[in-house]
Amino acid sequence: MRGTRSSPRVFTGGHRDGPAHVGLWMLRVVLLLLLLVLAAGVQTGEGCPDKCLCATQTVKCQNQDLESIPQPLPANTRSLFVTGNHITNISVESFPTRLELLTDLYLNGNQIKSVDSTVFDNLPNLSRLDLTDNKIVHFSAFPVNNTLQVLNLSSAFHNRLSMDAVLSVLQSGTLLHLTSLDLSNNDFVVLPDGLFAGLSKLTTLSLRKGSLIALQNGTLAGPPLLDLDLRDNRLREIPNASLAEFDLNPGLRVLLAGNPWRCDCFIEDLVLWLKDSTLAMDRQNLSCVDPGDLRGVPLLQLDPSQLECNYSGDMKGVLETSYVFLGLVLALIGVIFLLVLYLNRKGIKRWIYNIRDACRDHMEGYHYRYEINSDPRLANLSINSDV
Ligand SMILES: *[C@@H]1O[C@H](CO)[C@@H](O)[C@H](O)[C@H]1NC(C)=O
Ligand SMILES: *[C@@H]1O[C@H](CO)[C@@H](O)[C@H](O)[C@H]1NC(C)=O
Ligand SMILES: *[C@@H]1O[C@H](CO)[C@@H](O)[C@H](O)[C@H]1NC(C)=O
Ligand SMILES: *[C@@H]1O[C@H](CO)[C@@H](O)[C@H](O)[C@H]1NC(C)=O
Ligand SMILES: *[C@@H]1O[C@H](CO)[C@@H](O)[C@H](O)[C@H]1NC(C)=O
Ligand SMILES: *[C@@H]1O[C@H](CO)[C@@H](O)[C@H](O)[C@H]1NC(C)=O
Ligand SMILES: *[C@@H]1O[C@H](CO)[C@@H](O)[C@H](O)[C@H]1NC(C)=O
Ligand SMILES: *[C@@H]1O[C@H](CO)[C@@H](O)[C@H](O)[C@H]1NC(C)=O
């Protein structure tokens, strides 16, 4: 901008003073060159990398097919967005120069397989790490002195097996400053006991859109949670122990909608709790999915007398028919056995006689041999060998 404005001034000046024309013309070229060099200096010195946009400590390199973090980044970068690219791993090599001020790192929508703890080596102030929509397989424990506060791992894992990696990172006890953790859109089915116990600052936890089938005693114990999102899982009830854990955080706001609640005797504690407590923000929106005659009934409108574990319709009937069937099969086997015995009665008789005869022959053989070996010197030997 400055260049285009200043050069016409030099040009008109050159026209006005004829003799100085050539000198001023050269001055103009020199000025232009100077401006170019300055412009280039701005580009390399403040260092906005190729394919990136830099503005007030924010660097955005989005949807550029990048395979690694662009270098060098401006030393004063605070927020870095390298989203929608093809990065496969991050480690200290991704950040070879120290970025003291970098606090927010967004790496959503890449193909990151490996997150190495050395990534923190040159990012001492990193507080927000967004790894949404990646394919993480390897995740190494973060260094003890990390300053991470917000960790977004929504839809971040390659498969169920690789999710174990993050569970051990969470349990490693190094996320001492973490306040917000997003584990939504992952396939967690159950979470181990005490998973969040070491996260002593965690206030916001999202487990939305997972596959959780149950909350275990102790899973949510520990952190001072204020916002807990359990929507859109596969919970069918919530046990008393977990409700008691909710109650330990009086400021908690929990969201529970979108779960297939089964309204039988096991959900009674939850129903009573919902009527009594205001912690579930969306308690008006929870309704039964099972059994058929209660489908769609809001949990808040249930009367405890409706909550029965009624097995007479299915379980008991199944058991009864299976007992009858077992009896029939046993009777049939017995009849067949008797029939076989009966048909073979002659053979069996013959067989018994044969055995009896064989025994008799054997005994007679003894007698015979005994008589033969009546020589006292041999008798001892013969008896020993028969025994
Ligand atoms: C990380 O990715 C870069 C770029 O694709 C690659 O050159 C490097 O070898 C990878 N490092 C590891 C440890 O996988
Ligand atoms: C982190 O950021 C603060 C200010 O934002 C700054 O004073 C400090 O030097 C940075 N580095 C470390 C290691 O704390
Ligand atoms: C953490 O400690 C290691 C050495 O123990 C050091 O190299 C690193 O810079 C430290 N990181 C932060 C964020 O302080
Ligand atoms: C994590 O990322 C998802 C998707 O971008 C977003 O909806 C969510 O709010 C983020 N969570 C946090 C804690 O920033
Ligand atoms: C659940 O807790 C409530 C209140 O603490 C108690 O009244 C109820 O008996 C408990 N239910 C079970 C099954 O322990
Ligand atoms: C849950 O765990 C705590 C601590 O381990 C224990 O005191 C409590 O009795 C358990 N509750 C149930 C219902 O198992
Ligand atoms: C309850 O559901 C309705 C309709 O789905 C939605 O508009 C409302 O925000 C929900 N309320 C809460 C507290 O989530
Ligand atoms: C229990 O099951 C029986 C037989 O299926 C049915 O007649 C009865 O209405 C059921 N009771 C309840 C409370 O659902």
From TrEMBL:
Top-level taxon: Eukaryota
LRRCT domain ranges (all copies): 259-310
Alphabetically ordered keywords of this record: Leucine-rich repeat, Membrane, Repeat, Signal, Transmembrane, Transmembrane helix
CC terms in the record's Gene Ontology section: plasma membrane
Transmembrane helix listed as a keyword: yes
PANTHER family, alphabetized: LP06937P, TROPHOBLAST GLYCOPROTEIN B
Transmembrane segments: 323-343
Pfam families hit by this protein: LRR_8
Organism per entry: Muraenolepis orangiensis
Gene3D superfamilies per the UniProt record, alphabetical: Ribonuclease Inhibitor (3.80.10.10)
GO biological process, one term: negative regulation of canonical Wnt signaling pathway
Keyword S-adenosyl-L-methionine appears in the UniProt entry: no
Name of the protein: LRRCT domain-containing protein
Signal sequence annotation: 1-41
